[in-house]
Structures are given as C-alpha cells and as structure tokens.
Amino acid sequence: MPIYEYRCQSCGGVSSFFVRSIGVDLEPACQHCQSNEMQRRMSSFALGKTAASVHQNSPSGQSAAGTDYYRDPRNIGRNVEESFSRHGVELPQSVRETIDAARDGQVPKGIDI
Description:
- By secondary structure, this protein is an alpha+beta fold.
- It contains three helices and three strands, in the order βββααα.
- The relative contact order is 0.11.
C-alpha cells in the first residue's frame, strides 16, 4: 500500500496520498489549495532506525551532547533538517545543497575555520 507525494504547481505545497494498490488511478488535488495541477515527486522513506542507534554507530561514538558530535559529517545540518521536518516545511534546495556540500567536506562560503 504505497503513499505517493505530489507537489502543487499552483501553490508549491506538498501533499501525500495513501492508495490501496499500485494500479489505482489517482487524480490528486492539493490538500492546501485544492488545485489539480499536481506533479508527482520522489517520496522520502523510513529506515527503522532511531537517532540513538545512528549516534551509537557513528565513528566518533559520541551522543548529540558530546563534544565530537559535529565531527561526524552525518550530523552537520541535522538540527536544521529536523526543524524543517517538525514544522512540515520542505527544506529549500539551497539549504539542502549547502548541508550536502558540508557533509562532503566542503566549507560553506563565508565561514572561516
């Protein structure tokens, strides 16, 4: 039973639709503005891991309160991602690119180390 996500071309809102089977014809309407101008998008998925298990398995072995928390590149931007998600707002592409670049070892412009 899949859940499909669509972005509204009118208001930019993201709506999720639960369907009983893959073959169902879906005519999505925006849950924010009721527009029918919807474009399907790649959905996120869950991995059955807790934040605690991720931190326990991190190379530094430190918890979020530990001093080495941000030395693990997987933790860079985590608070920003969680804040946007908690408020139901999609992370802007420019912020996503900055976080991804930082996790790959690129220092964001304007930051001195």
